[in-house]
Task: structure prediction
Amino acid sequence: MKTVGVWDSGVGGLSVLRALLAELPEVRFIYVADSACAPYGGHSAELVTERALRISAALLARTPLDAMVVACNTATAGAIDALRARYATLPVVGVEPALKPAAQASRTGHVGVLATRGTLTSRRYADLVSRTEAAYPHVRFSSQACEGLADAIELADLPAVARLCHKAWTSLHQQSPERPPIDQLVLGCTHYPFARAELERLCGPQVQLVDPAVAVARQARRVLLLPARTPMALDVHLAVEWLDTGNSLALESAARQWIHREAKVETLPV
Ligand code: DGL
Result:
């Protein structure tokens, strides 16, 4: 049986784990929330890289892994190169804002991107924007950092989630009022799919929300060299192992709410 480690700063990676469980029911998953150092979005790339290396080392010391999924855009932007350099033989799958699928789907040619400051100020993101704009010359991206939104989702603070989504959506429009209306909104942080209902309400039916979780899960199947999913495999439901570097309450309640699992969380001392 294959074992895959999945981690994020907190509960956001559950949006990726949900897709992984659906795509790879025959795989055993270990989920780590680095709540002791959350949120990552305002940290330097150096600090995020240090955490990424420490969490990966702690996970691998516990169990041999067949692959690792960095279920966090901020950590992918800051640390995936360092992780791949350190663990050359371990497949490491990251999560990046899904600019290409959004550009492909956009009719108006204006795509909005919501992500953390860490992701949006990274070299990796700047390269992704230039590559995608070069490949889709009719498309322009407006990007907005959502300070505090991951935290509000972590705390399940619904009034704050509503207020911060409204602020982000308004700021996106104020950035470039001369552009045509946004018709694709990229969720560039794995926490944001848990604000989907609020965002859909704000944006209206003409805007499509773009979440890369399913594509990430398919990529995980590819790197694990597993054959295509069979309908029979859907009946298997393996237990997830849950770890948290800090307070596990948010993880327990988010696992129950978002993926309908009772999480017995152990502490990972990192
Ligand atoms: N969920 C993470 C991401 O995808 C980070 C949120 C945070 O800790 O700031 O970027």
User: Anything to note?
Assistant: The CA atoms of residues 169 and 203 lie 8 Å apart. The pocket of D-glutamic acid is lined by residues 8-9, 12, 38-41, 72-74, 116, 119, 150, 189-191 (CB under 6 Å).
